Amino acid sequence: MLKRFNEEEWRNALEAGAKNLQGPVDPYLLAETIGTPVSYTRDLTGALGATDGRHIWIRSGLRPSVEKSTLAHELAHILLGHTSCQDARGELRANRLAARLLLDPDAVSREREHCSSLSELADILGTDADLTSWGLDEWMTSRPGRGNRMPHK
């Protein structure tokens, strides 16, 4: 079940540097709540999404799980205060926050036990494989006896 936060909760999380946000949350509701317009376009070159810190553009025609993951990633940039292209460190921060927004660590751990590949786990969680991999990197490596690597299929 997706968590619903009211506007005050989102504002408080933003002021705290978005560290209090823990998924799963609905990225479409989040965009609406914080007043961020989302547009769909075919004009993105080599990117699935982009933001200027106030507006998000998503490539048209993406699979729903990829679209949702891309929106969460672009929202993470906004929550982190990014207003332009980021270096590898900025992208890493956005990836980690996007994983926290969309994934519940307990669900990741529980479902991982029943999956034979990263893509299978991503399908069950409703995200793309890249975002699921970031979630595994975030949570599973910090738990004793757990590795984060699953075969890609």
What would you say this structure looks like, in words?
The protein is built from 7 helices and 3 strands. The chain is globular and about 40 Å long. The chain is mainly α. The protein is 48% helix and 7% strand. The chain has a 3-stranded mixed sheet with strand order 1-3-2, covered by helices on one side. It starts with 6 loop residues before the first helix and ends in a 14-residue tail after the last helix. Helix 3 packs across helix 4 and helix 5 crosses helix 6. The longest helix is centred in the middle third of the chain and has 16 residues.
In short, what is this structure?
The protein has 153 residues and is mainly alpha-helical. The chain has seven helices and three strands, in the order ααβββααααα.
